[in-house]
Sequence to fold (114 residues):
Amino acid sequence: MHVELSSKIVILHATYDPYRSYPENMAYSEDDGNIYLLPTFHPYVWVIKKNDFSKKQYIQAASTIRMLAHELGHQTGTLDDGIGQMNNTKKWENPIIIGIEGYVRIKYKPYKLY
Ligand SMILES: [Zn+2]
Fold:
């Protein structure tokens, strides 16, 4: 994979912004170029374990690191489009997180919306 480094500055907001609400509180903002992550928010996502050829599906609370990997992908301009809205998850979130947590996300939509 070719990764192009950018000199663009990303400001990571790890605190709650009262002017935003879910889901904007865990997102890359096209308005200001910042990433907003609510550190106490961990939506349930569908995952499979690396190298588990049975492809058993698990529901897992998304870590802040997983969400940061996802939002960094958006900072590159990658969108939640494509088949199943999985383009950003496949291109950025999963390659970053698989070496850390060992699970890849298989669906864009969370298990349960709050
Ligand atoms: Zn996204």
In short: The mean pLDDT is 82. The pocket of zinc ion is lined by residues 70, 74, 80, 88 (CB under 6 Å).
